[in-house]
Every structure is written in C-alpha cells, then in structure tokens.
Amino acid sequence: EEEEEELDDPMESGGEPMDTDDEDGGGGGGLRALWGGGPAPVQLRRLSEALRGLRWMPLAEASVSAMLQAHLRLSLRERCAGRFESCVMERQLDWIDASVLPWVSAALESGADQWRARDLLTAASAPLKQWRARLRFFFMQSLAGMRIAELFDILVDFPDSTPALDDLHACLHHTHQHADIVQGLGEALEKRLLKPGAETHQILEVYIGMIRALRRLDPSGLTLDAVSERVRAYLKLRPDTVKQIVTTLTDPDSSDLLEPVGGGAAAEVVQEAAADGDMAPDPDESRGDEAAMLKWEPEPVTADGASSGGAAARRAPDVLAILVQIYGSKATFVNEFRKMLSEKLLASASHDTEKEVRNLELLKKRFGDAALSACEVMLTDVAESRRISRSIQQHFGGVSGGGEGATLIDATVVSRLCWPSLPTDTFTLPAGVKKEMARFEKQFAHIKAPRKLVWKASLGTVTLDVTFPDGSVGDVQCKPLQATILLRFGAQQRWALADLASELGIATDVVRKNLSIWLNRGFISEVRDAGGGAVFEAATSLGAGDESRHDAGEDEDGDAVASLAEEQRIAEMKVYEQYVIGMLTNLESLPVQRIHNMLKMFVPASGGDRGYDCSEQELQRFLMHMVEEAKLEHSAGQYRIAGRH
Predict the structure, then answer these.
(1) How far is 250 from 547, CA to CA, in rounded Å?
(2) Could you tell me if 60 and 46 are in contact, meaning their C-beta atoms sit under 8 angstroms apart?
(3) Angle subtended by helix axes 101-108 and 57-80, to nearest 10
(4) 402 has pLDDT over 50
(5) CB-based contacts of 23: which residues, under 8 Å, 6+ apart?
(6) Highest mean pLDDT among 466-480, 507-521, 604-618
(7) Cα–Cα dist 486/509, whole Å
(8) Range in 243-252, 413-422, 620-629 with the lowest mean pLDDT
C-alpha cells in the first residue's frame, strides 16, 4: 500500500498536473515541469523494479490506468470546459505524447530513465503503443462526453462555437458516441427549450442554429433527424409556428434562409414531402445534377426511414426545406404568406409594395412561380388600385373644386378569387362617407365597366383630424368602425351604449370593444346617468390618455382580430365537413393524420381551385370544432361520428 501511494505522489506533488504550458506539449507540462526532463524519480524506478521482480506489474497496470484517467479527466475539465472558441483536441493529444507517455514508459518499462518523447514515438515497444492508443482514445472519449453535455450551449453560440463542434466531430470519428448525442441533447432540449414559457420565435432560432450545427457535425443527417424529431413535434403543436416561420423568411436580417446551402448559383425549389409509403424525391435528381447522382450512396443501415421527415429531411438541401418538412407541405407556408401579405397590403395607406415584391421574388425561387401566382395577382391589384384611385381623385378634384364633397377615398380593389377570405362585417356608415363611396363606385364603373365594387366597410385605415376647444390632434389613424363611432360623437355629444349600437346596427359588445381606443386616448369618457347606467360622452378638452391602457386596448383588439380570423378559417373549412362525415361513416374511426391524407387525395387542386390546402393542425382545430358541435366524438386520438358505437 505504501508503494502504491508513492506511485500517485509524483503526479500530485507540486500542484495541479496541467497548470503550466510548454511550447512542445501544447497544453500543460505538469509532468515535464515537475521532473524537468531529467531522470525518473528514484521512488518510481525503485517501485517499477520491485513490481517487475515480483512479477506484479500486470496487477499495477489497472491502478496506473485509473490514476492517469482521473488526472486526464480533471485536466480536461479545468482547461477546456465551457471554452468553445478554439480547437483543443490536437493540442492535448500532443501533450499526452510529450508528457504523459514518457511517464508511463518510466513507470512500466525497464531502462526508461530519460524524457525523450520523440524517441519513444519512433521506437516504442508494442505495450507502450497500446498504452498510447488507450490514453488517446480515453481522452477523445472524455472530450466528446464533455462537449455532448455542453452541446446545447454550443448550438446556441453557433457559429462562434465552430471550433468546439469540429473537435466533437473529430472525436466522434473514433468514439462513435452518436447515441449519447441524441439522448443528451434531446434531454437538454426538453429541459431548456421546449417549454410553454419559451417564445415560438426563440425556439425557431435555436432550431435553425441546430440544423446548421448538426449538419456540420454529422453530414449524413442521421443525428439531426433523430434529435429534431421532438422539436418538430413540439413546433407542430404551436398555433403560431407557420406564421413565425414566414415572418422569419420575410425578415431582411434572416433572408439568407431563402438562399441555398453552399452559395449555389440557383436556388432549388422546395419539394413536397412524400406521402405515406411513397419514396421521397431525390433533390439531386430533381435538379438534374448528374455529377451528384453518380456519387449517390444508399441510406445508412441505422437510418430510420419511418421517422417524421425521414430520408426527405436528411436529404433536404437547406434549412428552409427542413422547416417545410415540419408540416410536409409547402402549401401551408404559401397560404400563411398569402394571409400575411393580405393584412400588410390592406393596412398600408401608401400602396408602397417594394418590400413585399422583394419578398415575393425570393419566395418564388424556393416555392415556385405556380404556388405564389395568387400573391403576384394581389400585388398587381394594389398597383392597379393606386393608378385607378389617382385617376378618380383627379377627376373629383376637377369636378367638385373643394368643399364637403372633396373628401376623397383611396380604395384598394382586390380580385376576390386570389385574395384570402375577407371579413363581411357591416355597420351603418356616416351619410357623407356613403355619398363619397357612391361617387367613387360610379366613376369606377365608368372606367372599368362592366365591373362593379362590393365594399368591405370594416377593412382599411381612416386618418382623422380631431379638434377640441383647447387644441387638436392630427393624423389619428384608426379602423373604419372606430372612426364611425367617433364621428357619431361629433354629431351628438352624449350616447348610451344601447342607443349607439342601434344607430350603428351592430352588437353592444362590439361597440364597447371599439370604444376602448377613444376611452384610453381621452377623446371619450364614461359617466353614469341618474339611474346608474353607463353613458359615454365626448371630452370637452384634449385629454392626455393613459398610454399603458392604450397599449392594452390595442392588444385586446389584436386578439379579437385573431379570433375573427380563426372563425373565418373554420367557416372556410365547412366545405370539408361532408367529406369527413363520409369517411367516418364508411371507416367508423380515423386519426387526424389519415383524414388529412385522404382529404389531400380526394380534394386535389384543379384549374383555378386550390383544392384542399389546409395544414394538419388547422384540420385538427376544425375537427375539434365539430366535436364541440356534437357532430363528432374524439377518444384516444380517433375521431368518430357522435352517437355511433
């Protein structure tokens, strides 16, 4: 026992084993600094000779190995943990050859008294070569294990953490710890990212960085496919995932997502995901790259082709193609872009579409011209509307010459078949506005006969100048219904909620919701009448308003718009209700995935009809709506007709 303690002592005496750097070792010369490159310590030589004399050297090798591994592991943590900015593997392996291997030779071989690392490497015995291979493998295994534990932080810091990722890639070539990556990174994602408190755009940012980093770590795509399975499943459950992806694509700072990987001259059109049981299209074959096709290799035997995305996701050429694999269809993203484009165009009073045209041209490179033809028509409508409105305004300016009738309307004329479904809410407009709309409609019919206008009074933006006895506020922008409410208070200073709702021809809760913007700005105040009822009256002076309440009112209004859009989407999907009822009548019960695939098969796009272009998530919300209406039952992931067992 005393002799084994003397074996550990040279490593432990004199401080930490890797606290000093040396030029030759490239990363800590603890052993060489301790002995100065001279003869091995007397205690070590004596112990080595005694063990060989007793033929106990094989028994001591296990203790020597455990001690060396402990010190290598400690040195690795102290020198490399959390440091991703530089490669450390080659430098530390050189240190093992220069410092650790001579110590092993001195401890276990006879006549090895001097530190001559280069001589050892050129004329090493077979046992010493085995020790070198074992130490190098253990170090690479330990480094890979440490980097796998830190992999989530490495992905977040990518591309600044590229050196650490390259070290891990080099280690995996020898240690094959890919299964540890899948398990460790998967647990880290569940613990640190896939949480209700994380914003969808933050999850997407990490996922996009993970795609790029894991593609560098494992070009085969197997690790990425296995790890991202749970991320794709989680993102698919979030209602705003598609919107956030499209927002990221149209962000000027993130537009590189639309460019192909590797800086190719031409972007590859994103391919549809293969249906269940079908073979996914090969991207090299799709773009006619014969050189790449000649280098084709079969899928690795460890590949799981049945996983979500499967081989299509592994062969996807870039980040955008992998994001599309979340839903399996680019139609989902095209429809979301069409909705967002519609909202932006209708909310813009300037008809400036330069940014939208740029985004459309970028998307056309990746999704194809045919998929975005409706969006191109939308932009054409806006440009044509600008020309028509200018022509009508010039005509009115020449005819009316000012006065009350000179208040002109700048209208956006849309092609009904190419735009998303627009709200059809109606309310009673002010007489002056209706008169101006009639004049605009008459002149439009004269220019574009035989077309006629169907007004969407609830859409658009109104700009008002609000005047008070003590001042005025100019360029107040609001929605048409909000402007109509404020104009009613200009004609009559005091209104009861029920009377105002009756005057406008809408529900009282809608009136109260649209009154909030003026209440928060201080233009209208709420008082109580003699009976204690709520009465609203116009302010007699310019109020300051509460900005925080104003923001809350706008957020509440935004939630109402989102709720309205959801109701409209469910109304659009009513056409598929009979298809669903027919499927469940014949097949009794089906999961949402089967219903989704059958609808794509039975309701294809043809001619000007887009066919079934809903996402699986939208279909699931529609089916749950049918459950709420007691038309369907949902149990254990299966849908069936209500009351049928």
Answers:
(1) 30
(2) no
(3) 160
(4) no
(5) none
(6) 507-521
(7) 16
(8) 243-252
Sequence-distant (6+) residues with CB within 8 A of 159 are: 212, 213
317 with 325: CB under 8 angstroms? no
| φ and ψ at residue 456, rounded to 5 degrees | -110, 90
Nearest one of 513, 518, 510, 456 to 490, comparing CA atoms: 518
Overall residue count recorded for the chain in this entry: 645
Phi, psi of 467 (to 5 degrees): -115, 135
DSSP classification of residue 258: G
Helix (H) or strand (E) holding 210: helix 200-217
HEC secondary structure over 93-128 = HHHHHHHHHHHHHHHHCCCCCCCCHHHHHHCCCHHH
Q: Answer yes or no: are the C-beta atoms of 4 and 66 closer than 8 Å.
A: no
The amino acid occupying position 210 is M
Residue of 530, 644, 506 whose CA lies nearest to 588: 644
Could you tell me which residues come within 8 angstroms of residue 327 by beta carbon, excluding any fewer than 6 positions away? 236, 242, 333, 615, 616, 617
Query: What gap in Å lies between CA 153 and CA 83, rounded to an integer?
Result: 11
For the four alpha carbons of 96, 98, 104 and 105, in that order, the dihedral sign comes to positive
pLDDT of residue 6: 36
Q: How far apart are CA 409 and CA 256, in angstroms?
A: 39
| Lookup result for tokens 């609808």 | 599
Return the pLDDT at 114.
46
The predicted model scores a pTM of 0.64
Q: How many CB atoms lie within 10 A of CB 464?
A: 17
Q: Around Cβ 335, how many Cβ atoms within 10 Å?
A: 22
Q: In terms of DSSP bridges, do strands 494-496 and 534-538 run parallel, antiparallel, or are they unpaired?
A: antiparallel
Q: Which tokens in the block code for residue 561?
A: 């718009």
Residue 102 preceded by cis peptide, ω within 30? no
Report the C-alpha gap between 152 and 206 in whole angstroms. Answer: 9
Tokens of 419: 């735009």
Asked if residue 135 lies in contact with residue 99, where contact means CB atoms within 8 angstroms, the answer is no
Residue 93 contacts residue 136 (beta carbons within 8 Å): yes
* Backbone φ and ψ of 633, nearest 5°: -120, 150
Give the H or E element holding residue 155: helix 151-157
Angle at 623 between CA 618 and CA 627, to 5 degrees: 145
Residue 151: what pLDDT? 92
Looking at per-residue pLDDT, the higher value among 330 and 227 belongs to 227
Query: How far is the CA of 559 from the CAs of 160, 563, 590, in angstroms?
Result: 39, 6, 33
Burial class (CB in 10 A: 0-12, 13-18, 19+), 94: middle
What SS3 state is found at 526?
strand
> 573-589 as b/e, with b when 16 or more CB fall inside 10 Å?
beebbeebeebbeeeeb
Give me the torsion for CA of 312, 317, 320, 323, rounded to 10°: 30
Distance CA 125, CA 131 (A): 10
Structure tokens at 520: 């928060």
Exposure of 297 by Cβ count < 10 A (0-12 exposed, 13-18 middle, 19+ buried)? exposed
How is residue 70 written in tokens? 């402990």
User: How many CB atoms are located within 10 Å of the residue 60 CB?
Assistant: 19
Q: Taking a C-beta distance cutoff of 8 angstroms, is the pair 98, 30 a contact?
A: no
- What would the mean pLDDT of 35-60 be, rounded to a whole number? 61
